[in-house]
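USER: Please consider what follows.
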Amino acid sequence: MNSSCLESPRGPNQAAVSTAIALLVCILIGGLKVSAANATAPVVTDGGWHAEVAVHLDRPGRAVSPELYGVFYEDINYAADGGLYAELVQNRSFEYYPLTDPRNPQAAEMKPLFSWQTIERGGMKVKADAAILEPLNPRNPTYAVLTLTGGSGEGGLANRGYENGIPVRAGATYDVSLYARRPRGAAAPLRVTLETPDGAVLAEAELRAPGEAWSRQDTVLTVARSDPKARLVVTTKSAGVVMLDMISLFPRATFKGRKNGLRQDLAQAIADLKPKTFRFPGGCIVHGRGLGNAYRWKDSVGDVAQRRPNFNRWGYHQSYGLGYFEYFQFCEDIGAAALPILPCGVSCGFEKPFQVAQGPELDAWIQDAIDLVEFANGPAESPWGRVRAAMGHPAPFGLKYVGLGNEEHDTTSFREVFPRFVEALRRHHPHIQIVGTSGLGPNVPLFDLMQQTGVEIGDEHYYQPPEWFITNRNRFDAAPRTGPKIFVGEYASRGNTQFNAVAEAVYLTGIERNSDQVVMTAYAPLLARYGFVQWPRANLIWFDQDQLVKTPNFHVQQLFSMNQGDRSVENAVTIGGRPGQSGGEKPVLAVSTMLVSKDGTLIMKIANPGAEPVQTRIAITGAVAAGKTAELLLLAAPKDATNDREQPERVRPVASTIAAGRIFDYTVPAMSVQVIRVGTGLAGARSSAE
């Protein structure tokens, strides 16, 4: 349909005549079939802005990337330990030590016995120390040494979890495990309890008496009643010396029932986004604070008791209990393609002094990239495939992407080392698609390097004000269709208000229009724990020990992810009328249209970041039998509206049905995002551009 078919009427009487004539012309030119009722009805206006949206189903569109919407996970804001990773004991292996980081007020207090306290009852005295001379293993060597004195009673340690208390629920089952040895003193059993803050027992079990050598012990606790501030207590009634390490408390009810698994509600919220890709483990923690602090994936696999913990760039410790195996398994569980990000032997450009691996040291970093693909995809008889199989997954994970680098600065050193990683992966694993960093910021300073090295996808990141996302909604219209595809791997508009969410939706409509070139996206960061936040500007999901809050931004991501076609459809938007109460600036109405070829559903996404509603006429060209009604999902709220723990559903999508057809009127509310789904009778249409 020609845009001249949708010119704005000039007056009440002229409107009906003009509309009828215009539609008759469209019928003669484009073969549009309309009902008599819709053919003569003008856009009903109240003096404010109005728009006309022409949807051209008769014009072949571009193929839509099937992996367009994904998620990015980084251990920031206590997203892993104390968050997605379901372990309830903090500092379970006594490996904490003081850190210096202004973003985390607890950093300087972190010591080997952080989150633990001694328990003395009935005359038993306890002295607790940390030691490393006779470790369970050398990779996390610190353990607790309890010296107990006194003739009666019991003594031991208690852990308070992550918020001065561990939330437990009546009837729930918890798995407890620990390693213990008793080098001195009479043999005596260990007693494990879950207790209220005042010492009332909620669940208890007895473990066998530890011997002189380290041994693992396991038990199960079923809680009698709920308590949000419980603590895990390990005691003994015999004087002497007891050593403890790797003390763990896990809810039996993890996501998909996985051992060493994920917190159910958080994992389910991520799964509910229906992500097609999952980028992990970062982010800035990948290259850390210097090469010695970088995330090396080999430290995060194998027996959790033998993984090497690390501190991260955000000022707290990581147990690596949530490691590469668990990430791959989670991707498999939610149907997302794994996208691991590997450091490239250069340190973070934001931390001084800048470090670069050289010679054999750099070769080891390159070998890490080669070995990761073998860990994920190699046969169970291969060296790293054998590690995967021993962890419970003999079959390959089917990894197809490897990400190299994250926001590295444009330096001569990085430009020298990056091609070596690409060449090595090409030689050893030619089937792997490489996602390379394009650098930080909208100017993508390293995109030319991605072009020169021939990587399949360039990963660009930016955190900008919401107005930037609105202004740059057409950013990718002129993107070249040669060279690397584009992954918008980290972006957010610096806030969790309705305005932020709508601005991001505006930007996403431009991405959808160009999703043959922008093949993947991911909002960042994903998770933030209340009270433990290093990145407060914007996070997709906020949570505490027993509650999560989905932001308006979350709902936009979910609306776009769950309402995706396989072929874009051309549309044209014409805005007319005169200003209402908010002033004279013409509003932005961002529209994306897609077709689901399998069943012929037309999906329209419309974002209005303005302060006034826009009365809109939608005309569909090329439909065989447009539905008389359409499904509507509407996210509308005041500009500054947010969700929080008190009102977690203040802003949420509302579903309804509206009248539709080949031509229909719909008023787009102010500050809103909507998805309209209507049938077209085009089931079986081609799913790619001609």
In short: The radius of gyration is 29 Å.
